[in-house]
Design brief:
Oligomer: heterodimer
CATH architecture of chain B: 2-Layer Sandwich
Radius of gyration of chain A: 41 Å
CATH class of chain B: Alpha Beta
Distance between the termini of chain B: 38 Å
Shape of chain A: elongated
Number of helices of chain A: 29
Largest interface: A-B, 36 and 25 residues
Largest sheet of chain B: 5 strands, mixed
Structural class of chain A: alpha+beta
CATH superfamily of chain B: STAS domain
Strand content of chain B: 25-35%
Structural class of chain B: alpha/beta
Number of strands of chain B: 5
Radius of gyration of chain B: 13 Å
Strand content of chain A: 15-25%
Helix content of chain B: 40-55%
CATH topology of chain B: Transcription Regulator spoIIAA
Order of helices and strands of chain B: EEHEHEHHEH
Number of strands of chain A: 18
Number of domains of chain B: 1
Number of helices of chain B: 5
Helix content of chain A: 40-55%
């Protein structure tokens, strides 16, 4: 449904453009461009040949530019004949070869000659005595009789200078001047120039103080929003680091746009001509263009970061598809849908200035005339520039709309602020009407309203891609209407690019799977509500202390137990973990081996772990029976955990001399016992409930101790659930069977090597997945072929067992 | 690595059935905790947790059952666990849950148990 509305918007937009543009567009009207790049090069080559210069096969740079003096004259006095005869848009063709020779030809937008500059090192060709007069006749054309000669072969450093002037009778001080410089009978420089003194343009400035105020307000508004953005960015940075991360990842979209400008050749065109104007041949200005592009990207980066930091929770869903996209989630139908909606809505927004022109009684629309791009080798790529240059959208819609949402609570006031800001800012980069004309405000406000609606319904990507749709539709439609064959072709190419791009987005919005927006929104919420950075750093430092303290709590080296070897490993999944292992000397030469796991992870779990360690250590003196010890621990945990925390615990009390052991399991994973005699593994599963889950009686009723004997070569492996629940990227668990299998394979090795083998097996199983729970392992092995150290069974141990 | 987890709630007579789906771990446990908390606040103390589509449970997920079991029983209800897959049951079993919770092979049987033994199990 939404997609159909977008399609309807695009159709309506194109119909509007098709209908209104030819009537109101300046480029299609009085300054009609009838010459494209291809035609301009052909004309220039033909003329050059007439001057005796063969430039076929040279490199070309073509650009069009607007003559500001002539524009002023046109604005001031539409009746001026000088202004009627010459078009304000002029096309410059620079030809140069690799020897350093260059020729510059300028023509009107409809292909009449305006200037010729021969900058070859050795001008040669047909010489003629009346070269200056012939050149004048060529440049003045049908208006030759209006000109009066003011200089006749005056000798200058450059050559012989001749000049003719045409004073406009309608406007005092306005004139067109033709200057021709010849050397040895060759024209080396000729030009048509215009001059319009300030007084002549007075009419244009009679607009009054309101317009002056408007013209001052526009840059002030833009500057104000930028300051706001900078402030918001700095305060945002104090809170969290996310905005910069998002902006950096999003930057590839405008970066592609800028790269496309280099690909389309329009930067190179401009750069070559600028370099030539500065007396150089080559692309020296390209470096400058490149630097400026980087600065533009930097600006977008900072503004995006400021916007990201300002997005209120109610608008996070609008940003989620972009956040997912830039994190590499390409299978994202929401993002494609936003792009489709933005591109299509842009077409309708592009029609706005023409509606306003029709309503305001027909002022000419100078909208996206950006004629430089017209002359690029690949002009149809030009609209892509809009992904990096639609500043009115970035400032007002992408930054100010989220920023005001959390601060201005009356919706109508918010819209009012946004529309006013949009109307003013939009007049800055491209006012469709003459500067200060009130129609600029009207179209600015209407277009801002359009962008805001796109943002509300199609999110960040919609708003970001709308200018692309707008530019492609406006420029494509205009070019198609222009009479030059190459421009018309470029127009169709532009429209085809728009069409294929938006249809691809539409198809993707149907075909791709939906991305998990909820996850993105919750990540954004988490980042927005995270503690301030300074506080977070403090926390991190405290965590580091906790982590070190915790690591110190674990035994630094295994004990040496006669006839046995022991090894243990503990990898916390987070800075601090909830797993514990320990070996405690117990009275009568016995050892208590313990592995425990506190539910949950992080600091809370670590604190419980510390408590457990302390309680175990303090029990060593009294050496109570295992069940009594577990009961006490259960009471302590249940009392302080209040149901929110529980601990699973596995205890093995080893009497090494007698090679006997007792095992108690409080809800913990059952240890594995490998019997050297049979080569089989068995799980030790006495009954037992996790500590802290239930009160005394039911805990004790469900508790049992298991006694077993160990023979040389036997191995006991205690572990936490992090080992068996180790997860690989597909979500499969390591599991008890795999653990048993690896133990069976390596049980002949000593404890250390067996632990390493299990760790290695787990690591290769986990592949790229991260450890998601603490991973703890304790291996006890009865050394093969060694007699018991003591030889007699300790009486106390027997008593405990009973 | 975030894995999906979802809860759907339905009524089965006077009993509320919370069907869990996916991975219940430290990341998703808060969601489950909120859901159970809301049910108890709304006065629904007879809860059956349908684990037929639960793929994985971690200790944090198990903790949620512990947080609310006393509250549910004090309110005259219970939290019963139903249709647990073998892998997940193993986790419940290791921890000793069968001694503390009423774990039934199907949701219907769990719901029916409320009729047999109103209140505490």
């Amino acid at each position: 449904m939404k997609r159909a509305v977008s399609a309807a918007a695009a159709v309506a937009g194109f119909l509007s453009l098709w209908h209104w543009m030819p009537r109101h567009d300046a480029a299609l009207g009085d300054s009609r461009v009838t010459v494209g790049r291809k035609e301009a090069i052909e004309i220039a080559t033909r003329w050059a040949a007439q001057y005796g210069v063969e430039i076929r096969g040279w490199r070309f740079a073509v650009a069009s530019q607007t003559d500001p003096a002539l524009m002023r004259i046109r604005l001031a006095s539409p009746a001026s004949r000088v202004a009627r005869v010459f078009t304000p848009i002029r096309i410059r063709v620079l030809a140069f070869d690799n020897r350093g020779d260059a020729v510059l030809v300028t023509m009107t937008a409809d292909g009449r000659p305006l200037s010729f500059l021969d900058r070859r090192r050795n001008p040669a060709g047909r010489a003629s005595a009346d070269a200056a007069e012939a050149e004048f006749a060529r440049l003045a054309g049908a208006n030759a009789h209006e000109f009066v000669r003011t200089a006749d072969n005056v000798r200058t450093l450059e050559g012989s200078r001749s000049a003719w002037e045409w004073l406009d009778p309608a406007l005092n001080g306005v004139l067109a001047r033709i200057v021709v410089i010849t050397r040895n009978g060759h024209v080396v420089n000729s030009s048509v120039e215009f001059s319009a003194p300030r007084e002549a343009a007075a009419e244009a400035r009679r607009a009054g103080w309101q317009r002056a105020l408007l013209m001052a307000l526009a840059p002030l508004t833009a500057a104000g929003i930028s300051v706001l953005a900078a402030w918001s960015l700095f305060t945002g940075l104090l809170r969290h680091t996310d905005p910069l991360g998002f902006a950096a990842r999003f930057l590839w979209i405008p970066a592609i746009a800028i790269a496309s400008m280099f690909l389309s050749g329009s930067y190179q065109n401009e750069a070559l001509l600028h370099s030539f104007d500065e007396g150089l041949v080559g692309d020296t200005r390209l470096l400058l263009g490149f630097t400026v592009s980087l600065l533009v990207l930097l600006g977008i980066y900072l503004l995006l970061a400021a916007s990201w930091a300002s997005v209120p929770p109610s608008q996070m869903r609008l940003w989620a598809p972009a956040a997912l996209l830039v994190r590499g989630c390409w299978k994202n139908r929401q993002a494609a849908g936003q792009v489709w909606a933005g591109m299509t809505a842009g077409v309708l927004i592009g029609a706005v200035p023409y509606w306003v022109a029709a309503a305001a009684g027909g002022p000419r629309v100078r909208f996206l005339e950006g004629a430089g791009g017209l002359m690029a080798p690949l002009p149809f790529l030009e609209p892509l520039e809009e992904l990096a240059s639609a500043w009115e959208v970035y400032l007002v819609v992408i930054f100010l709309a989220p920023w005001t949402a959390g601060r201005i609570h009356r919706w109508w006031l918010r819209w009012l602020v946004l529309l006013a800001a949009g109307a003013l800012v939009a007049t800055l980069p491209r006012s469709p009407f003459p500067p200060g004309h009130l129609a600029n405000l009207a179209s600015g406000a209407a277009m801002t309203a359009g962008y805001l609606l796109v943002y509300r319904h199609a999110g960040l990507l919609g708003a970001w891609f709308a200018p692309l749709g707008l530019h492609a539709a406006v420029q494509g439609t205009r070019l198609v209407h222009l009479p030059a064959a190459s421009l018309e072709a470029a127009g169709w190419q532009t429209l085809a690019l728009f069409f294929s791009f938006s249809v691809a987005a539409l198809a993707a919005s149907f075909l791709l799977p939906a991305a998990d927006e909820d996850a993105a929104v919750s990540r954004m919420l988490e980042a927005a509500t995270a503690p301030p950075r300074s506080q977070r750093e403090k926390l991190r430092a405290e965590f580091e202390v906790a982590r070190r303290a915790q690591r110190d709590l674990l035994p630094s080296a295994p004990p040496s137990i006669a006839g046995f070897d022991v090894a243990a490993v503990c990898h916390p999944a987070q800075e601090v973990g909830g797993d514990l292992y320990d070996y405690l000397p117990w009275p009568h030469g016995r050892w208590m081996l313990c592995v425990a796991d506190v539910s949950g992870k992080g600091l809370g779990a670590a604190l419980y772990m510390t408590m457990l360690k302390g309680m175990l250590a303090s029990s060593a003196h009294h050496a109570p029976p295992l069940e009594t010890l577990a009961s006490r621990l259960n009471q302590a945990v249940a009392g302080s955990g209040r149901g929110r925390m529980f601990i699973t615990l596995s205890l093995i009390l080893l009497d090494p001399a007698a090679r006997r052991a007792e095992h108690l399991r409080a809800g913990h994973n059952p240890p594995l016992l490998w019997r050297a005699r049979t080569g089989q593994c068995e799980f030790l599963r006495p009954r037992g409930i996790g500590l802290g889950l239930t009160s005394g009686p039911s805990f004790e009723a469900n508790l049992e101790t298991q006694a077993f004997e160990l023979e040389p070569g036997d191995v006991v492996v205690m572990y936490s659930d992090g080992v068996t629940e180790d997860m690989n990227p597909e979500g499969r668990l390591f599991g008890e069977e795999r653990l048993a299998a690896v133990i069976c394979r390596h049980a002949g090795a000593d404890a250390r090597r067996l632990a390493d083998a299990i760790m290695e097996e787990a690591r290769s199983f986990r592949e790229t997945a991260e450890l998601h729970d603490d991973w703890t392992l304790l291996v006890l092995r009865c050394r093969p072929g060694e007699a018991p150290a003591g030889g007699t069974v300790s009486g106390a141990a027997l008593q405990d067992e009973v | 690595m975030t894995r999906s987890f979802s809860i759907t709630t339905r009524n089965d007579g006077p009993v509320r059935v919370l069907a869990l789906k996916g991975y219940l771990d430290a990341h998703t446990a808060p969601q489950f905790e909120t859901a159970v908390g809301e049910e108890l606040q709304a006065g629904h103390s007879r809860l059956v947790v349908d684990c037929s589509e639960l793929d994985y449970i971690s200790s944090a997920g198990l903790g949620v059952f512990m947080i609310y079991i006393d509250e549910a029983r004090q309110a005259g209800g219970d939290i019963k666990i139903a249709a647990v897959r073998p892998k997940v049951y193993q986790v419940f079993d290791v921890l000793g849950f069968p001694a503390l919770f009423d774990i039934q092979p199907t949701v219907e049987e769990a719901v029916a148990r409320f009729g047999q033994q109103p209140g505490k199990d």
